[in-house]
Amino acid sequence: MSKFFYKYWWLYYILLFSLLGLLIYSLLWKVNFKPYQDIINKKNTELVDARESLKGKDRYIKNLEEQLAQCNLREKQNTVQCNAKVESGGQGMTETTHNLGNSPGRVVVNFDMMDVPDKIEVIYNGEVVATSTNFVSGQGNLSFNYQALPGQPNSCIVKMSAPEDGTIWEYVVNCPQ
Protein backbone atom coordinates (compact mmCIF):
# COMPACT_ATOMS: atom_id res chain seq x y z
CA MET A 1 0.00 0.00 0.00
CA SER A 2 2.83 2.42 0.80
CA LYS A 3 4.33 1.77 -2.65
CA PHE A 4 1.15 3.15 -4.22
CA PHE A 5 1.45 6.47 -2.38
CA TYR A 6 5.13 6.88 -3.34
CA LYS A 7 4.52 5.87 -6.92
CA TYR A 8 1.46 8.13 -7.57
CA TRP A 9 2.25 11.17 -5.38
CA TRP A 10 1.39 13.51 -8.22
CA LEU A 11 -2.30 12.39 -8.07
CA TYR A 12 -2.63 14.11 -4.69
CA TYR A 13 -1.68 17.45 -6.23
CA ILE A 14 -4.18 16.99 -9.05
CA LEU A 15 -6.89 16.10 -6.54
CA LEU A 16 -5.97 19.06 -4.30
CA PHE A 17 -6.00 21.60 -7.14
CA SER A 18 -9.25 20.17 -8.55
CA LEU A 19 -10.97 20.58 -5.20
CA LEU A 20 -9.58 24.12 -4.78
CA GLY A 21 -10.82 25.00 -8.27
CA LEU A 22 -14.25 23.60 -7.53
CA LEU A 23 -14.38 25.60 -4.29
CA ILE A 24 -13.42 28.86 -6.03
CA TYR A 25 -15.89 28.18 -8.85
CA SER A 26 -18.71 27.55 -6.37
CA LEU A 27 -17.89 30.76 -4.47
CA LEU A 28 -18.06 32.82 -7.65
CA TRP A 29 -21.19 31.11 -8.92
CA LYS A 30 -24.22 33.44 -8.90
CA VAL A 31 -27.46 31.61 -8.20
CA ASN A 32 -30.70 33.16 -9.45
CA PHE A 33 -32.96 33.21 -6.37
CA LYS A 34 -35.58 35.47 -7.99
CA PRO A 35 -38.21 32.75 -8.67
CA TYR A 36 -37.77 31.39 -5.16
CA GLN A 37 -37.92 34.87 -3.64
CA ASP A 38 -41.30 35.43 -5.33
CA ILE A 39 -42.60 32.19 -3.79
CA ILE A 40 -41.23 33.18 -0.38
CA ASN A 41 -42.87 36.62 -0.63
CA LYS A 42 -46.18 35.04 -1.65
CA LYS A 43 -46.05 32.62 1.31
CA ASN A 44 -45.17 35.50 3.67
CA THR A 45 -48.20 37.43 2.40
CA GLU A 46 -50.41 34.38 2.94
CA LEU A 47 -49.01 34.02 6.46
CA VAL A 48 -49.74 37.67 7.29
CA ASP A 49 -53.28 37.29 5.89
CA ALA A 50 -53.81 34.14 7.97
CA ARG A 51 -52.62 35.93 11.11
CA GLU A 52 -54.99 38.84 10.42
CA SER A 53 -57.82 36.39 9.83
CA LEU A 54 -57.04 34.70 13.15
CA LYS A 55 -57.08 38.05 14.93
CA GLY A 56 -60.55 38.68 13.49
CA LYS A 57 -61.70 35.22 14.55
CA ASP A 58 -60.20 35.74 18.01
CA ARG A 59 -62.24 38.94 18.33
CA TYR A 60 -65.34 37.06 17.15
CA ILE A 61 -64.74 34.23 19.66
CA LYS A 62 -64.14 36.75 22.46
CA ASN A 63 -67.42 38.47 21.55
CA LEU A 64 -69.25 35.12 21.63
CA GLU A 65 -67.70 34.29 25.00
CA GLU A 66 -68.89 37.65 26.37
CA GLN A 67 -72.41 36.99 25.06
CA LEU A 68 -72.36 33.52 26.63
CA ALA A 69 -71.22 34.98 29.95
CA GLN A 70 -74.10 37.48 29.81
CA CYS A 71 -76.56 34.66 29.07
CA ASN A 72 -75.18 32.61 31.96
CA LEU A 73 -75.47 35.66 34.22
CA ARG A 74 -79.10 36.14 33.16
CA GLU A 75 -79.74 32.43 33.76
CA LYS A 76 -78.20 32.66 37.23
CA GLN A 77 -80.28 35.74 37.97
CA ASN A 78 -83.40 33.85 36.87
CA THR A 79 -82.74 31.06 39.43
CA VAL A 80 -84.56 31.28 42.75
CA GLN A 81 -84.48 29.13 45.87
CA CYS A 82 -87.36 26.90 46.90
CA ASN A 83 -89.96 28.52 49.22
CA ALA A 84 -89.51 31.82 47.33
CA LYS A 85 -92.58 33.55 45.89
CA VAL A 86 -92.52 34.27 42.16
CA GLU A 87 -94.96 36.88 40.90
CA SER A 88 -96.41 37.70 37.50
CA GLY A 89 -94.11 37.98 34.55
CA GLY A 90 -97.02 39.37 32.53
CA GLN A 91 -98.40 38.14 29.24
CA GLY A 92 -96.28 35.57 27.42
CA MET A 93 -94.09 32.66 28.42
CA THR A 94 -92.01 32.85 31.60
CA GLU A 95 -89.48 30.22 32.68
CA THR A 96 -87.93 30.28 36.14
CA THR A 97 -85.41 27.81 37.54
CA HIS A 98 -85.90 26.79 41.18
CA ASN A 99 -83.12 25.27 43.27
CA LEU A 100 -84.49 22.28 45.20
CA GLY A 101 -81.42 21.46 47.29
CA ASN A 102 -80.00 18.02 48.07
CA SER A 103 -82.80 16.59 50.23
CA PRO A 104 -85.31 14.27 48.56
CA GLY A 105 -89.04 14.55 49.19
CA ARG A 106 -92.37 15.69 47.86
CA VAL A 107 -92.32 19.12 46.23
CA VAL A 108 -95.59 21.06 46.38
CA VAL A 109 -96.17 24.04 44.09
CA ASN A 110 -98.89 26.41 45.33
CA PHE A 111 -100.20 28.82 42.71
CA ASP A 112 -102.76 31.58 42.34
CA MET A 113 -103.72 32.50 38.76
CA MET A 114 -106.19 35.19 39.92
CA ASP A 115 -109.01 35.86 37.41
CA VAL A 116 -107.29 35.45 34.00
CA PRO A 117 -106.57 31.78 33.14
CA ASP A 118 -102.93 30.72 32.84
CA LYS A 119 -101.11 27.40 32.54
CA ILE A 120 -98.29 26.16 34.77
CA GLU A 121 -95.85 23.33 34.02
CA VAL A 122 -93.08 21.98 36.24
CA ILE A 123 -90.16 20.41 34.38
CA TYR A 124 -87.51 18.28 36.07
CA ASN A 125 -84.63 16.62 34.23
CA GLY A 126 -86.19 17.50 30.87
CA GLU A 127 -89.58 15.93 31.64
CA VAL A 128 -92.88 17.51 32.66
CA VAL A 129 -93.49 16.19 36.19
CA ALA A 130 -96.50 18.35 37.10
CA THR A 131 -98.88 20.49 35.06
CA SER A 132 -102.21 22.26 35.32
CA THR A 133 -103.00 20.50 32.00
CA ASN A 134 -105.25 23.35 30.84
CA PHE A 135 -105.48 27.08 31.43
CA VAL A 136 -106.85 27.64 34.92
CA SER A 137 -107.74 30.59 37.11
CA GLY A 138 -107.82 30.85 40.88
CA GLN A 139 -105.77 28.97 43.45
CA GLY A 140 -104.44 25.43 43.26
CA ASN A 141 -101.43 23.25 43.82
CA LEU A 142 -99.29 20.70 42.01
CA SER A 143 -96.84 18.19 43.44
CA PHE A 144 -94.16 15.74 42.39
CA ASN A 145 -91.60 13.48 44.04
CA TYR A 146 -88.02 14.74 44.03
CA GLN A 147 -85.40 11.97 44.30
CA ALA A 148 -82.20 14.10 44.74
CA LEU A 149 -80.03 11.43 43.11
CA PRO A 150 -76.30 12.00 42.51
CA GLY A 151 -75.62 13.11 38.95
CA GLN A 152 -79.18 14.38 38.51
CA PRO A 153 -80.15 18.07 38.47
CA ASN A 154 -81.00 19.70 41.79
CA SER A 155 -83.37 22.20 40.23
CA CYS A 156 -86.66 22.29 38.37
CA ILE A 157 -88.04 24.72 35.82
CA VAL A 158 -91.47 26.28 36.18
CA LYS A 159 -92.92 27.36 32.86
CA MET A 160 -95.83 29.81 32.98
CA SER A 161 -97.96 30.27 29.87
CA ALA A 162 -100.01 33.46 30.01
CA PRO A 163 -101.54 34.15 26.60
CA GLU A 164 -104.07 36.80 27.62
CA ASP A 165 -103.45 40.46 28.28
CA GLY A 166 -103.81 41.71 31.85
CA THR A 167 -102.83 38.43 33.46
CA ILE A 168 -101.57 38.36 37.05
CA TRP A 169 -100.26 35.22 38.74
CA GLU A 170 -98.00 34.06 41.54
CA TYR A 171 -96.67 30.76 42.81
CA VAL A 172 -94.34 29.22 45.38
CA VAL A 173 -92.24 26.08 44.83
CA ASN A 174 -91.96 24.66 48.33
CA CYS A 175 -88.79 22.86 49.37
CA PRO A 176 -88.94 19.04 49.31
CA GLN A 177 -90.45 17.47 52.46
Describe this structure in words.
With 177 residues, the protein is α+β, with helices and mostly antiparallel strands. It has three helices and nine strands, in the order αααβββββββββ. It has helices at residues 2-7, 10-28, 34-77; strands spanning 79-81, 85-87, 92-99, 105-112, 119-124, 127-131, 139-146, 155-162, 170-173. The strands form two sheets. A five-stranded mixed β-sheet has the order 1-3-8-5-6. The longest helix is centred in the first third of the chain and has 44 residues, at 34-77. The relative contact order is 0.16. The chain crosses the membrane at residues 12-33.
List keywords for this structure.
3 helices, transmembrane helix, 177 residues, alpha+beta, Jelly Rolls, membrane, single chain, five-stranded mixed beta sheet
Major sheet strand order: 1-3-8-5-6
Largest sheet, if any?
Answer: 5 strands, mixed
Order of helices and strands: HHHEEEEEEEEE
**Integer-rounded radius of gyration:** 40 Å
Going by CATH, the architecture of the largest domain would be Sandwich
> How many strand elements?
9
